[in-house]
């Protein structure tokens, strides 16, 4: 044990004699480890952010959504036109879905209503939907205050609504919205609940679901069917557009995750028979998206690892070159050690331990810099984006990072192993020196 400690101390002393050269040699390993940790943290952070957004849609959910087919986009030549486009999920489709999935945990419809949401002089384009009380559970929503829709609201066709967080802030900036009245077109609804902010806003999840859920207004389906027809009118300067959709969305919750893909395939087949080519309906299966995101993240991790591995390889080659030069410079020292009784194994171990010490120090420095840079990126990037200094960066842009113990341990281990592997040849060269020739070397 004392021999190993003595060799380690001797190795550190030799590295300190050529501090600049040792530092420059170690930079390849330092940057290699830094690259592994930073790229791994960026990849893991992006993966977790994407998975969180997708999982909010519900891992057991299948979402069927009405969509306007391309042929119904008949605004041409800049002419002002009025028309009614009929497309999407019908009530008959919804009945067929209910009959074919009797064991589903829940089947929840949404029906878009109204052209505008108004209060006093404030107005926003309507994102109001008639729905059922099961939506809050199926869509993974939660309440900030108040209550959600109830079966009693459905039975009495109550003129009540639950609003998204952004609608609450916009329409009631200085007061509690509970008990206050909103109008959807000209029909009044009393606010009974406010939804908690949903992180899908502006993210991948919002793109998948097709809207920002923080702008939603939910009313009982019975009140929506009684107070509004199937036609929703959108007015703009000098023209209007009217869409007639019986059911806007359907959430189907499978009994368990193992059934999701099978149920999605069966539902897709049913819809294809009723909507050729699925031109006016689309299916969103978060579980499929979740698996695809995981596979994509794994691919990126492998690519990042390969790039970082190349950096470590370059660092290892640099260590080998410097150690070969060190063997040549220290030929006389090797001869003296051999003459005083050191064996070939002693000399070989001396050079290997020097290489290992250099790699370990470089690896630790790389770990420190990598962890620090990852934390700095995660903390500083949103602030840099919000500052507005760089116009090409969106103000709400984020660059999530997440450190993993595996990437830190792996990068450090690979760094030390790389140094040792590339140190074997110089160590063998040193041990193979003839002591008589080495003593005569000048």
Care to describe what's here?
The structure is a single chain. With 442 residues, this protein is of the alpha+beta class. The protein has 2 domains: 2-54 and 292-440, no CATH class; 61-253, no CATH class. It is 54% helix and 17% strand. It has 14 helices and 15 strands. The longest helix has 44 residues, at 286-329.
Mean pLDDT: 81
Indicate the percent of residues in helices: 40-55%
First-residue to last-residue Cα separation = 34 Å
Radius of gyration: 33 Å
Number of helices: 14
Biggest sheet layout: 12 strands, mixed
Assembly state: single chain
Element-level helix/strand string: HHEEHEEEEHEHEHEEHEHEEEHEHHHHH
Domain count: 2
Low-confidence stretches: 72-82
Form type: elongated
Structural class: alpha+beta
Strand fraction: 15-25%
Compile the SSE list and pairings.
Layout: H1 2-17, H2 19-55, E1 61-66, E2 84-86, H3 91-100, E3 106-113, E4 116-119, E5 122-125, E6 128-131, H4 135-138, E7 143-146, H5 151-156, E8 160-163, H6 165-171, E9 181-184, E10 187-195, H7 204-209, E11 217-220, H8 221-227, E12 231-236, E13 239-244, E14 249-253, H9 260-274, E15 281-284, H10 286-329, H11 331-339, H12 344-387, H13 405-431, H14 435-440
Parallel strand pairs: 2-13, 6-11, 8-10
Antiparallel strand pairs: 1-14, 1-15, 3-6, 3-14, 4-5, 4-9, 7-10, 8-11, 9-10, 12-13
Helix pairs in contact: 1-12, 2-10, 2-12, 2-13, 10-13, 12-13
């Amino acid at each position: 044990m004392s021999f190993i400690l003595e060799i380690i101390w001797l190795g550190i002393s030799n590295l300190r004699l050529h501090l600049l050269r040792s530092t420059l040699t170690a930079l390849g390993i330092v940057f290699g480890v830094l690259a592994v940790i930073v790229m791994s943290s960026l990849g893991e952070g992006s993966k977790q952010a994407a998975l969180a957004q997708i999982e909010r849609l519900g891992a057991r959910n299948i979402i069927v959504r009405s969509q306007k087919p391309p042929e119904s986009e008949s605004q041409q030549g800049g002419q002002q036109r009025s028309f009614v486009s009929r497309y999407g999920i019908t009530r008959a489709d919804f009945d067929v879905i209910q009959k074919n999935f009797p064991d589903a945990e829940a089947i929840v419809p949404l029906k878009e209503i109204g052209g505008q949401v108004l209060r006093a002089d404030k107005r926003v384009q309507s994102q109001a939907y008639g729905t059922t009380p099961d939506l809050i559970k199926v869509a993974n929503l939660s309440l900030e205050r108040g209550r959600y829709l109830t079966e009693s609201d459905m039975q009495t066709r109550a003129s009540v609504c639950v609003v998204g967080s952004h609608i609450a802030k916009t329409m009631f900036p200085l007061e509690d919205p509970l008990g206050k009245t909103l109008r959807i077109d000209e029909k009044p609804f009393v606010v009974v609940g406010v939804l908690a902010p949903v992180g899908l806003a502006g993210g991948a999840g919002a793109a998948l679901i097709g809207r920002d859920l923080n702008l939603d207004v939910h009313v009982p389906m019975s009140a929506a069917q009684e107070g509004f027809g199937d036609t929703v009118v959108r007015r703009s300067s000098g023209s209007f557009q009217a869409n007639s959709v019986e059911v806007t969305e359907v959430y189907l919750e499978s009994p368990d995750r193992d059934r999701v893909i099978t149920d999605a395939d069966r539902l897709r087949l049913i819809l294809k028979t009723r909507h050729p080519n699925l031109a006016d309906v689309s299916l969103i299966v978060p579980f499929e998206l979740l698996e695809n995101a995981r596979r994509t993240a794994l691919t990126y991790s492998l690519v990042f690892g390969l790039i970082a591995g190349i950096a470590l390889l370059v660092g290892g080659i640099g260590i080998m070159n410097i150690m070969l030069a060190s063997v040549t410079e220290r030929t006389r020292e090797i001869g003296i050690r051999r003459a005083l009784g050191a064996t070939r194994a002693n000399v070989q171990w001396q050079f290997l331990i020097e290489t290992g010490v250099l790699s370990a120090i470089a690896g630790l420095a790389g770990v420190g810099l990598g962890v620090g840079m990852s934390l700095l990126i995660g903390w500083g990037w949103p602030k840099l984006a919000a500052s507005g200094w760089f116009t090409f960066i969106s103000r709400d842009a984020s660059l999530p990072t997440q450190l993993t113990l595996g990437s830190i341990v792996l990068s450090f281990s690979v760094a030390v192993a790389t140094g040792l592997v590339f140190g074997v040849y110089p160590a063998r060269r040193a041990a193979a020196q003839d002591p008589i020739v080495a003593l005569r070397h000048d």
